[in-house]
Design brief:
alpha+beta, Aminopeptidase, 8-stranded mixed beta sheet, GNAT_dom
Length: about 180
């Protein structure tokens, strides 16, 4: 796995590495309770919280366990969300996908465009066979999004994660390479 983010370009977006200079733009959406409520994160209280998140993005690349791209609009270059892979298991050719987007851009097809691009990248570049999405039952919009992109709902993982002082159930969604060929 590369030790830096490749740039991925779509019709409206540029997916690129997030830098510490993006922290203020990211604070705008990571401090929004509605954006982070299904991410297992408390809303960012200050820019230092965002710097910790960016540091995590950099660490998963260094460790080879994931990659995270900043979602930027071509016309502004401002980071309005992020998407990427975590818990990459090279031996098993699988990874978990994650994403979030500023509320100002919900319902415009941006998350779908960004996720579609990284799913293709994951299958083609990383040679993934399976991409998983773990989604809280209350996160209906993300469930609809991954279903639209071809993911299959496999089942409920009860008390799968412990975040913010509580156990969370998560739905397991997946897409395998051959699902895209059907």
């Amino acid at each position: 796995m590369e030790k830096q983010n490749p740039i991925i370009e779509t019709k409206r977006l540029i997916l690129r590495e997030v830098t510490f200079e993006d922290a203020l733009d990211m604070y705008h959406y990571l401090s929004d309770e509605e954006v982070v409520k299904h991410m297992g994160l408390a809303p960012a209280q200050n820019v230092e919280d965002v710097l910790d998140e960016i540091e995590w993005y950099h660490s998963i690349i260094t460790e080879g366990t994931g990659i995270r791209w900043g979602i930027t609009l071509k016309d502004s270059g401002k980071v309005i969300g992020s998407c990427g892979y975590l818990n990459m298991q090279g031996k098993h050719y699988r990874a978990e996908v994650g994403f979030e987007l500023s509320k100002n851009y919900w319902g415009k097809g941006i998350a779908s465009e960004a996720l579609g691009a990284i799913i293709s990248y994951g299958f083609n570049h990383y040679q993934l066979e399976r991409i998983e999405g773990l989604i809280e039952p209350g996160n209906i919009q993300s469930q609809k999004l991954v279903s639209k992109l071809g993911f299959t709902k496999e089942g409920l993982l009860r008390h799968y994660e412990y975040t913010l002082g509580k156990f969370d159930d998560l739905y397991m969604y997946s897409i395998i390479k051959s699902d895209l060929i059907k």
